[in-house]
Amino acid sequence: MTKIEVMTNQIKLAPLFNPEEGKAVVSPLGNETGYWAGAPTVLFDEKDETFYLYYRLRNPRGHGENERGFEVRIASSKDGENFTDVWSLHKKQLNSSSIERSSLVKVKDDLYRLYISYVDPADNRWRIDVVEAETPASFDVEKRQKVLTASDREGVEGVKDPYIMKHEEMYYMYFVYAEGLKGAEENGMHGTGDVHNTGLAVAPTGLAVSSDGLNFEWKHTVLPVSEAGWDQYQSRVTTIIPFEGTYTVLWDGSVGVEQNYEEKVALAVTADLKTFAKINVEGPVLETNLKKAVRYVDAIIHDGHIWYYYEYTRADGAHELRLCKVGL
């Protein structure tokens, strides 16, 4: 056995959920393919005993300023199931063609951060910025500052979908980055403002670290795409769950550009948040009964359960944001 095989055989993984048993907490704006509500990140604020949920709304192309990922929102809830919107951001406020998954983090009392993933209007590449506020309802994107862009590393065509963890006074940021395929023309990658939908780049997960959560140093790739197989196009970390002395990692995989919007969930493990081992190399562990997407999972441990929030493809083709709780 290899060291990785020994590692994965000896650890205990966090219990997973049944996507079909989830409850819809945010519905899309339409009932057909191209309408989405999803890309969640969630936190439970112990100070005011409130859940805060960030999510993204998407409409199909052809809706002008309200197409693609046109708006993101933060909602609050006392029970984690019934949410009321308290903040929103339209893509036109960033002069962007789309906003995607972002990471909502509480740093300390009266200090929250939102790490925003959006298409940079300057070069049509995905980038990550951060904005601070005293409450999740008071973010002012005019005060945002750069965290990571494609130009920070040679050969990178975009960075998006950040997931932030704080561990031993250090911030760990996991993010998807677009790595152009050999021979791909740069102009073809960025004409639509979404390199991930061109088939000209793959999307592994990178790691950057920071002592203050503002100035990050790009380290290395923690979850590469495979050379062949179901995850050869994308391997995107979406949540990390501390469990039984190690960490259970959920990530989205896809075989090619045809699954760019219909990724599925697999598992990995890490003991140090720096070195990851994939468990599901043959195929995903979570998908819908119709073999459609379960993706962008985020999870928190609360009240003796793991609360899983995730994006789910319905039978009508629209995506809704669901919650499924699993007892520990």
Concise structural overview:
It comes from Sutcliffiella tianshenii. This protein is mainly β.
Describe this structure in words.
- This protein is mainly beta.
- The protein has a single domain, classed as Glycosyl hydrolase domain, family 43 (Tachylectin-2, Chain A, 5 Propeller), CATH 2.115.10.20.
- 4% of the residues lie in helices and 49% in strands.
- The protein has 2 helices and 21 strands.
- It has helices at 3-10, 186-190, and strands at 23-26, 36-45, 50-59, 68-77, 84-90, 103-108, 111-119, 126-133, 145-148, 156-167, 170-180, 201-202, 205-210, 217-223, 234-243, 246-254, 264-270, 276-278, 294-302, 305-313, 319-327.
- Strands 10, 11, 12, 13 and 14 form a 5-stranded antiparallel beta sheet that branches. The chain has a 4-stranded antiparallel beta sheet with strand order 1-21-20-19, with no helix packed on it. Strands 2-3-4-5 form a 4-stranded antiparallel beta sheet, with no helix packed on it.
- The radius of gyration is 18 Å and the shape is globular.
- The model is unreliable at 1-7 (pLDDT under 50).
- Keywords: Hydrolase.
- GO terms for molecular function: hydrolase activity.
- InterPro entries: Glyco_hydro_beta-prop_sf (IPR023296).
Write the H/E string, N to C: HEEEEEEEEEEEHEEEEEEEEEE
Instruction: Please report the distance between the alpha carbons of the first and last residues.
Output: 30 Å
Tally of helical segments: 2
Number of DSSP E strands:
21
Using the coordinates above, name the CATH class. Answer: Mainly Beta
Assembly state here?
Answer: single chain
What would the principal axes of the Cα set say about the shape? globular
Question: Which architecture does the CATH hierarchy give at level 2?
Answer: 5 Propeller
GO molecular function, one term: hydrolase activity
Protein name: GH43/DUF377 family glycosyl hydrolase
InterPro entries: Glyco_hydro_beta-prop_sf
Keywords: Hydrolase
